[in-house]
Amino acid sequence: MAGEHVYVENLGQYDGRAVTVKGWIYHKRSSGKIQFLVVRDGTGIVQCVVLKNEVSEEIFALAQRLTQESAVEVTGTVRSDKRAPGGYELTLTGVNLVHLAEEYPITPKEHGVEFLMDHRHLWLRSRRQHAVLRIRSTLIKACRDFLDDRGFILVDSPILTPAAVEGTTTLFETDYFDTKAYLSQSGQLYSEAAAMAVGKAYCFGPTFRAEKSKTRRHLMEFWMIEPEVAFATSETNMDLQEQFVSYIVQTVLEQRKPELELLERELSKLDAVRPPFPRISYDEAVERLQQAGSDIIWGEDLGGDDETVLANQFDRPVMVYNYPTAIKAFYMQPNPERPEVVLCNDMLAPEGYGEIIGGGQRIHDYDLLRQRLSEHNLPEEPYRWYLDLRRYGSVPHAGFGMGIERTVAWICGLQHVRETIPFARMLNRIYP
Ligand code: 4AD
Ligand code: MG
Asked: Are residue 368 and residue 254 in the same domain, yes or no?
């Protein structure tokens, strides 16, 4: 009687046949002689009908006892039903209880975000969170496919490192036997070594910033993908970024439409994300902002609100290039005609999502890099290997880093990055 184990997403191939679905009770309702068990198995949800007249008394009673999130194996016949979610329903012949769940804390009623974040390990079971997890998974695969298909080699960067990449104020420090180590803020410096070895390289992994800011765009631990290309310039770097971002957005749109729809994402906004992307200089960005009423002055970094105002002027991501040297990292290549700006760019996502990419051309001259380290009060010793790259066949090169969570937040249309990573690390949260 027990049918073949079938995943809910494949039920359509088994119309009229007996199957077994293994999963959890999502919710249930009953009306006297009939019970509806809604079972989720990770691939989808299916409504299961238990008819008093057609199953044994034991099975009907067992179905009545089932609580939300109890684990079950249900056996029944697949019937197509247009009204059912997913288009199919199961008429049950058997129920096997694997585990009777205790009273489940997350009920269909509304819960506050802090409560849900405290129960994140359970919250992941909800449909919206499934959709986000799936989109994140597809997006990461798309990032890797894009680079792998274009001859990039994945070269992993270390997490425990001796030196800062993005300034010393956001470093997580840890003991490393009788010395200190820092959790990586970015794999970039190692990606540069990799690019000099294999030409086109990328690293992908978790990165860490002790950001004292509590915003909807900041996590302490986030994932970054960082391509780096030898003989590249800031221009070709921007070409690569617009190809890359268009590809991943279109791929998610193609492969995760039901999930985007469940999240009520406006699909036409994503459809518009195709090259070329607008490119404006930092100078122009400041002018545009001043015209829009901002009190920003040349030399200041763009704040979150500035980024939103600018991005709202375009229907696709905008690249802002050549920021002031003084507000950017030590490794950035100065513009030869205007050393007060560097050959870098940020990419700002539309609809208020702000910066998703930071990147640019790196200093390839040994003496200039040493000088910059000293101007930034950075010790030379931990960067000796990085300086070496400028001693043995140094070439102009460029790369960028894209934050996965901010990109997922934008593509999903989520208010806050906390829902884009399975277990968020935030200023006041390291649980669960
Ligand atoms: O602009 P950032 O700091 O650039 C770098 O780290 C470069 N070393 C990357 C490179 O050129 N290889 O960070 C890059 C991206 C940001 O645009 C943003 O998407 C993300 O990383 N990011 C964060 N995401 C979530 N929480 C934070 N605290 C983030 N800080 C940066
Ligand atoms: Mg940045």
From this structure: yes
432: in domain: no
Contact 405, 135 (CB under 8 A): no
Whether residue 307 is found in the same domain as residue 219: yes
Q: Is 357 in the pocket of ligand 1 (CB under 6 A)?
A: yes
Cβ of 194 below 6 Å from ligand 1: no
pLDDT in tens, 10-40: 999 999 999 999 999 999 999 889 999 999 9
In a domain, 198, yes or no: yes
List C-alpha distances in Å: 61 to 65, 73, 94, 168.
6, 16, 12, 63
Tell whether 426 is covered by a domain: no
Q: What is the pLDDT of residue 1?
A: 54
DSSP letters, 45-114, are EEEEEEETTTS-HHHHHHHHH--TT-EEEEEEEEEE-TTSGGGEEEEEEEEEEEE-PPPPS--SS---HH
**Domain, as residue range, for 58:** 4-99
- Asked if residue 418 has its Cβ within 6 Å of ligand 1, the reply is no
Q: Do residues 314 and 269 make contact, with C-beta atoms less than 8 angstroms apart?
A: no
